[in-house]
User: Fold this.
Amino acid sequence: MRVSDTEAAQRVADNDNLVGELVSVLKTITDNAEQNAFEDWLERICPSGDVTEVQRRWKDSGAYIHFSEEWGFALDAIAKAQGAQQ
Assistant:
């Protein structure tokens, strides 16, 4: 059965919307996981310094590297999807 060009275009738009929603949910889950990892690290390490210094130390920490490795598949998928949407 052949679909019309209009119906095909609508299906593509529906798929794009679904992908956008899925990426949004994945980003929220990943952001929450990073926040939890950060808070655990913050409680364990109790770093001093201003916000910028603490963020830099977080990004340089083994805990952040572990988070990045554990969630790398999701971070890569989000980056790829966001790049395709631009």
Observations:
- The radius of gyration is 19 Å.
